């Protein structure tokens, strides 16, 4: 467990805050493990009605820690990042995200698995996988073309184009865009707490119905993407791009 993930409980709502401000909340192996374990516990805890994932009012997350990618790249599906992905995919409780500032890489793709997503209008979302010599992950190669059509998804995944919170809401990636990071977090908390007074079993069954048709195919796609992603991490293209970021000053 790491203090770079803050875990707070308010009635039935469990809030997980990414808390590594000096590195823009970049996610390390330890942070993925902590998130994966906490999600699993929350899933089987009858007292928890919903889980809210957030960063700070300035930054959601800069994505995977790039130094970790170089020093300890995930080598197979038994790595912390894949435990996190699968536990998020399998979570039966409502998942809510509040996003402000940068949401890069997995900071954007994890939103595709949340049930409700509240973003600041000027949040900066981006999936620069190709730019880093990598490939899409976390089911994004399946979900985004379905959601946006191939041509718009290709701008985001093949060119690594960034977009803002307002666009995320217009495209259905987010539920609503709000005026500031504080407002996005307040709305996310307000909506997440509503699950506390809804019938839990009805919520669980309804989410299951919404997710069931895609669950198996998504798991398969996540595994296929993951196998290629871990290979790409060791490619000369990725090595050059990742060390370029680390040595950019
Ligand atoms: N991994 C490791 N460290 C990261 C990081 C990441 N993904 N993103 C940012 N950091 C670190 C920077 O190296 C810097 O550390 P330093 O102060 O020790 O030099 C610190 O966080 C602040 O980052 P900085 O780039 O100065 O902040 P910014 O506000 O100008 O820009 C981002 C923020 C998120 C837009 C920018 O940091 C960025 O593009 N990060 C890389 C995102 C990325 O490609 N993620 C991987 C996706 S697969």
Automatic annotation (TrEMBL):
Its EC number is 4.2.1.17. It is found in: Peroxisome. GO terms for molecular function: delta(3)-delta(2)-enoyl-CoA isomerase activity; enoyl-CoA hydratase activity. It is an enzyme of class 4 (lyase). Keywords: Isomerase, Lyase, Membrane, Peroxisome, Transmembrane, Transmembrane helix. It comes from the Bacteria. SUPFAM superfamilies: ClpP/crotonase. InterPro entries: ClpP/crotonase-like_dom_sf (IPR029045), ECH/Chromodomain_protein (IPR051053), Enoyl-CoA_hydra/iso (IPR001753), Enoyl-CoA_hydra_C (IPR014748). The chain crosses the membrane at residues 95-119. Pfam families: ECH_1 (PF00378). Belongs to the enoyl-CoA hydratase/isomerase family. This is Enoyl-CoA hydratase. It comes from Pseudomonas vancouverensis.
């Amino acid at each position: 467990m790491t203090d770079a993930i803050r875990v707070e409980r308010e009635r039935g709502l469990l809030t997980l805050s990414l808390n590594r401000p000096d590195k823009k909340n970049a996610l390390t192996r330890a942070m993925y493990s902590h998130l994966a374990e906490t999600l699993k516990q929350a899933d089987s805890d009858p007292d928890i009605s919903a889980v809210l994932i957030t960063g700070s009012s300035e930054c959601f997350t800069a994505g995977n820690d790039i130094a970790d990618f170089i020093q300890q790249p995930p080598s197979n599906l038994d790595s912390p990042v894949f435990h996190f992905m699968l536990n998020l995919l399998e979570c039966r409780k409502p998942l809510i995200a509040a996003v402000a500032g940068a949401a890069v890489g997995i900071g954007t793709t994890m939103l595709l698995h949340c049930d409700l997503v509240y973003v600041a209008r000027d949040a900066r979302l981006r999936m620069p996988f190709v730019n880093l010599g990598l490939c899409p992950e976390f089911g994004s190669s399946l979900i985004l073309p379905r959601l946006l059509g191939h041509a718009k998804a290709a701008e985001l995944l093949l060119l690594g184009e960034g977009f803002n919170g307002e666009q995320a809401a217009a495209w259905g990636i987010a539920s609503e865009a709000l005026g500031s990071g504080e407002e996005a977090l307040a709305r996310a908390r307000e909506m997440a707490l509503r699950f506390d007074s809804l019938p839990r079993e009805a919520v669980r069954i309804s989410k299951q119905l919404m997710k069931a048709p895609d669950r198996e195919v998504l798991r398969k796609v996540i595994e296929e993407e993951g196998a290629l992603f871990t290979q790409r991490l060791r490619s000369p293209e990725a090595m050059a791009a990742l060390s370029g970021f680390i040595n950019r000053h």
